[in-house]
Structures are given as structure tokens and as C-alpha cells.
Design goal:
The chain is of the alpha+beta class. It is about 40% helix and about 15% strand.
Length: about 240
Amino acid sequence: MARLPGFHSRETVDAIFRLYEEREGPGRHSRRLGGSTLGKECARASWYAYRWAFPVVSFEGRMLRLFDTGHRSEERVLEDLRSVGVEIHEKDDRTGKQHEVRALGGHVVGFLDGVGRGFKEDPSVWALIEAKTHNQKGFKRLREKGLRVAEPKHYAQCQLYMGLARLERCAYISVSKNTDAIHLEWVEFDPAFFQGLLDRARRIITATEPPERISQDPIRPPCGWCDANELCHEEAVAEVNCRT
């Protein structure tokens, strides 16, 4: 019989994380502009991403498992809403997958977590449902500042999906990863903001040169943590492909 290791063992844990990496496979560039990419503060970063100008970021198994935890939490939110009487539609009957919305010839695409009716605040109105998870710091900021300030990318995503799905309201629901507390914020559709997103998408898609930098400081946020930092501020060369 093999001798067991001490209280800190890695072999089985490492095997679990490798499994997530094998399931994920090699990273791939996104073919289209999604709501979160389009909602980035920096249009230049969105342009680089759309043009596949920098390498795809690969995540280790632990992070992939964390993403899966968030996805499972979103499914649980929909189950909870059903349990309190909300009618939920999260699958397209034709495809069996999430409802998909498109714009600008299919260059802008979004996938809806769900659409629901029967919320206690106004049972008669159909609303987009966006479910997310946050760590405690992000959750606290969301409660204090509101979605538009705390998570501008998510706010843009909600506005884009509402506009494309022709919905007037969104129930943005966040679950704290630390305490399992739930925050629900109602977002009203803003036609001008939505049109601004489409205009921005059109500029990103058609521009042959990158937009202006949002900052000249490569160290401080938002540039410091940007995936395109070396390409934008230093002398890195763009990947060679059909979009560059």
C-alpha cells in the first residue's frame, strides 16, 4: 500500500485543474463584438480585440473552474426566480441554446441569460435577465455605486441586449461569492445610450486605424491591466491573421 502524503497534497487537485484545461482546449479569438467588449472604456482596446491583434489569453485550470462556478451560480439564480413565481425563458425553442441577438450584419452578437415575467416589483412586464457573480469588494461597490458606475461593461451589455431584444427593462442580479447575498438592480432601457453603442460598434468594425489611446500612461489603470498594453504602448507587433 502506497504511503499517503501529508496534509497538503497536490496530485489529485492538479489533476482536476488539468481536466478543466483539457476541456477548454486552445483559446480562440472571438469572431464578433460582444456586449462586454463593446462596453469597454477604451475603444482602442475593443478595436484591437476585434482585429485579433494580440494573443488570446489562456487561463489556468483554477480560473477556468472559477468561471464554471459563476456559470453554475447563474443557473441557480434562474431556478430561484422560477421558485418565487417568475416565468423564465432562457432557451431558444429552435436551437435549444441561449437566445441570440445580432446587429450590424452579425458582427455584433449577444447571448441572453434569460427573459422573465412575474417579478414582484411589476409582474406584468417582460424583462431581460442578466445574472452575474462578484467577489465581496465588487459586490459592495455595486450596491453602493449602482451598475452604471460600478460595472460599466455590464451596464453596456444590458443596454445592448435590451435594445436588440426590444425590451424596456433589465433585472440585473448579482450574487456575492463570499456571502451568497443577492443584489437585484432594475435597469431602464436608454435609447440614446443604445444607439451610441451601435455607432461605436460601427466605427470599431470599419476603422482601418486604431482609435486614440484613452491614456498615455501604460502603468496606471486602465492601461496597466489591458491585454493590449504591449501592443498599444510598446513595440509589440500585432499577430498576423486575416483581420490584421
